[in-house]
Write a structure and sequence with these properties.
Blueprint lengths: L1 E3 L5 H12 L5 E6 L5 H5 L10 E5 L5 E6 L2 H13 L2 H9 L2 H8 L1 H17 L11 E5 L3 H17 L3 H14 L6 E5 L3 H16 L4 E9 L6 H9 L1 H10 L7 H34 L7 E3 L7 H17 L1
Parallel strand pairs: 1-6, 2-4, 2-5, 6-7, 7-8
Antiparallel strand pairs: 3-4
Length: 320
């Protein structure tokens, strides 16, 4: 399960992770639960229906399938599965009862979404093997991920017997199993880092499995420590270096002098950003989790970019 503060690129990381896990002939299911159709946009395909559809082929012949889980359709599945209300359930849907139930009870919506995902995890082929080698969920943001995953514990406590109780317990067994991990996505910025630290604490407090913290959109350091120190200490040296670079022809000295101030200001801003990133990275490292890093893609994230990020994830998780 992949979560993260809004704007950190959690959907992109979830998609890249699905591609990475589908390497070497494996089959992965990528699940969306927020109804944003972000997966379809990333893979440049039409909107995902409430059915599993192949959307990509990974290196080595692996396949990525995708599913956009709709709470109303999932409730109809539940009514049929537990109470054999196929026709009656569809009639309730036409009357708007299904939409009403999932709207007034957000906890019910989360039960349905996690339940449908866990059903895909447990599903087996006729030969006994699992249909999917891995299931990746583009999960809700960090601020509500713990509540989202723990809701079945509450349901199991409220419904102390019967099919709902058994279903909630089976979902929590999947969520809390050793084969499940919640990966949090962050940027090296103050607010995302703090929300990630708080999210890890909440997940651990609820007994939910935390996998790693993925640092996304990492920008390269343009100047090393020595270069930053030299630029800050010797304004005249910077001006002479600009002049030697051939700026301005006969008047290159004057023009170089005009550039010194803005360039030094940029260097100071770059140094300040590096210091903030260093502090954020130290906080994240202190959590004691694997911390893979993904680069900022200069041209944005398109389908080719997803494959690039998937390759980075494969490489880093293999070495760790």
């Amino acid at each position: 399960m992949v979560s993260g503060k809004g704007g950190t690129g959690k959907t992109t990381v979830a998609a890249a992770l699905a591609l990475a896990l589908a390497d070497e002939g494996r089959r992965t299911l990528l699940v969306e639960v927020e109804g944003r159709q972000g997966i379809a946009q990333l893979f440049e395909t039409e909107a995902l229906p409430y059915e599993e559809r192949r959307i990509a082929v990974a290196p080595g012949g692996g396949e990525v399938y995708a599913l956009a889980i709709d709470a109303e359709q999932a409730l109809l599945d539940y009514l049929q599965m537990f109470y054999k209300l196929g026709g009656a359930g569809r009639a309730l849907n036409k009357l708007g009862a299904i939409d009403f139930a999932t709207t007034i009870a957000p906890g019910l919506r989360d039960v349905l979404l996690t339940g449908k995902a866990c059903e895909a995890v447990r599903r087996r082929r006729k030969n006994g093997g699992f249909v999917y080698d891995a299931v990746v969920m583009d999960a809700p943001p960090t601020g509500r991920i713990t509540r989202f995953l723990a809701v079945n514990d509450e349901v199991a406590g409220l419904a102390r017997m019967g099919p709902i109780h058994k279903q909630a317990q089976s979902v929590m067994r999947v969520i809390k199993s050793s084969e499940t991990a919640v990966h949090l996505v962050t940027l090296l910025e103050e607010m995302p880092v703090q929300e990630t630290v708080d999210g890890v604490a909440e997940l651990r407090g609820a007994g939910l499995p935390v996998g790693s913290v993925v640092v996304n959109m990492v920008r390269p350091a343009l100047l090393d420590e020595d270069a930053l120190a030299e630029a800050a200490a010797d304004r005249d040296a910077v001006a002479r270096a600009l002049a030697r670079a051939g700026l301005g022809g006969a008047s290159r000295g004057a023009r170089a002098g005009q550039l010194v101030g803005p360039l030094l200001e940029q260097a100071r801003e770059h140094a300040a950003r590096l210091e903030l990133e260093r502090a954020g990275r130290a906080e994240i490292t202190g959590l004691g989790l694997p911390v893979p890093e993904l680069p900022l893609l200069a041209d944005g994230v398109d389908l080719a970019g997803l494959y690039t990020l998937a390759g980075e994830l494969r490489k880093q998780w293999t070495t760790t």
